[in-house]
Design brief:
alpha+beta, Glutaredoxin, Glutathione S-transferase Yfyf (Class Pi), Chain A, domain 2, 2 domains, 55% helix, globular
Length: 204
């Protein structure tokens, strides 16, 4: 039985949760991080003191995108998240790395609007974060003009890594430009039961 450690409202925990649901893999999850804290047992598993951490038999794996790659390679196949062709696999893979930069861009708005009392908010930082996200999302918009998904013709790991952050982007109280191709892609994600269960929860 796979065990995933991490609180369910974390972007980085949502990623493997979503993939586990897509693959139909049985798992258990334990709340760790944030208000749940981390004890010595967890730090022994993940010396970085971050979430998530995945246990599968003797394997202990951390770093969310690395966990995605492991799950796809171990439990997926050429038609489910782990294409046999390295070139095809690389299309989605680059978006996993690109998402790391987007994760930095969203912090100002996310922390400011979701985790900071209104009277204490840094509105300049929130606006700068929103502007940075909007510029980045235009890159996605341009890519999706010629592709159904970030990973190609089918949902892939790049979509999972970025799709988690897209939910937050579209649910933050910020001004956003019209991005019709991105909105089409996001609508398709929202139709997936695994996305609904693992990602579409209140921001907190």
């Amino acid at each position: 039985m796979i065990t995933l450690w991490g609180r369910s409202n974390s972007h980085n925990v949502k990623k493997p949760l979503w993939l586990l649901e897509e693959l139909g893999i049985s798992y258990v999850r334990h709340d760790v991080g944030g208000p749940f804290g981390m004890d010595e047992v967890y730090h022994a598993k993940n010396p970085n003191g971050l979430i998530p951490t995945l246990e599968d038999g003797d394997l202990i794996q951390w770093e969310s995108n690395s966990i995605l790659r492991y799950l796809a390679a171990r439990y997926g196949d050429s038609s489910t998240f782990w294409p046999a062709d390295p070139a095809q696999r690389a299309i989605g893979d680059k978006w996993m790395d690109w998402q790391i930069g987007f994760g930095e861009k969203i912090k100002g708005a996310y922390l400011g609007l979701i985790r900071t009392p209104e009277a204490q908010r840094d509105h300049a930082a929130i606006s700068a974060s929103a502007e940075a996200m909007n510029s980045a999302m235009q890159i996605i918009e341009n890519m999706l003009e010629s592709s159904e998904y970030l990973s190609g013709d089918a949902l892939g790991l790049g979509d999972i890594a970025m799709g988690v952050f897209a939910y937050s982007y579209y649910n933050l109280a910020i001004d956003r430009p019209a991005l019709p191709m991105t909105e089409r892609w996001f609508a398709k994600l929202q139709q997936r039961p695994a996305y609904q269960k693992s990602v579409m929860i209140p921001l907190s």
